[in-house]
Every structure is written in C-alpha cells, then in structure tokens.
Amino acid sequence: MPESETQRFHEELSRLEEENRLLGNELMSLRHFVRSLQDLADASRRRAGPEDTMALLRQILKSSLDAINAEDGSLMILDEDTGDLVFVLAMGRVPQEQIFGFRVPKGRGIAGWVVENQEPTIVDDVRKDDRFFSSVDDHFGFETHTVLCSPIVGGGRVLGVVEILNKVKGHTFTVDDLTLVTLLCRFAGELLHSMEERVATERGGA
Predict the structure, then answer these.
(1) pTM (2 decimals)?
(2) 1, 104, 150, 176: which has the fewest Cβ within 10 Å?
C-alpha cells in the first residue's frame, strides 16, 4: 500500500475511533438522563413533606451532575419575598456546611440573571463575564472557572436554580449538557410544584 494511502487509512481510523468515543459518551449521558428522570419520579411519589422536599431537591442536584458527568454544583431556592437566591444544597468541592443559607442578592450573579430571564445559560470563562458574582468564591475560597446554570420552573414560576461548576478534566459545558440539565430542572420543577399543591391541600383539609 502506498504511503499516502496508508496515511489516509490511519487518519480515517483515528476519525472513526474519535467518533465512536463521542457516541459512547453521548449514550452514557442519555442513560444517566433516563435514570435521573426515573429517580426524580420515584422521589416524588412519597408523601409530600419538608423531608421529602429536601430529598427531591437533593435528587435534582445529583441527577443534574450525573447527567453531564460533573462533580461540583449547588442548588438555590428563590426567596419570593426578597428576590434573593438562598443556597440550600451543595455537592462536590463546594462547602455544603458553610454555604447553606448564604444569600445571593436579587439580580446578582449568573444565577440572578437566569432567574430574571427565566432561561438557562453557559459561561465558559466567568472572569470575562460581567454577570459573575465573585463574592461567593471570595467568601468560601472556591475557584469557579466555568458555569452551567438552569432555572427550576414549576407552575409557571421560577422556584430556584441549579448551578454546575467546572466540568471535570477542564472541559467546557456543551449545548447538549445544557439541554439535559434544563429538561431535568423543568421536570423537577413541576414535581416540586405538585408537591407544594398537595401540602397546601392537606393543610386546607386538616
């Protein structure tokens, strides 16, 4: 076989191997996504109460991280009285015990923008984005590089946000990542909304 044909053969083989690797990653993500939906549905079937709501919130965050192969993330709930976002959960290197209850003022940060615009976003370099609220990093000694943030929407209103940080191995978040997390958050938001309605109905009938 001539050298030029040998080179083309190896180039094509390398291309096919890379394509196969990418397809394998996509399949893994889809499997995580389907499993995450099932886990959320299972969590929502239990009797609605404060502990069940926290369990569902924890499952939302874990499912989002699993679906896109990320390690660090947090979940914030919207305080409808003040407009602040309040940290209630963190996973990975984000300090859960310290960050619980920490508030991001109304409209501040990437998460605040997501709430106000009711749409998800990806930021590849937070230092180049004017929306970034560095006070959280400064306060907790964390270093954010990339962000994927999606609103949790239920009953036509924003209930909170999921914020995922620094995808593993220095990779950037993709549009597919954003789509998966957004779908999870929308599904989870409707579950949370239905749980709220069940609690209100039970209290009203008590």
Answers:
(1) 0.76
(2) 1
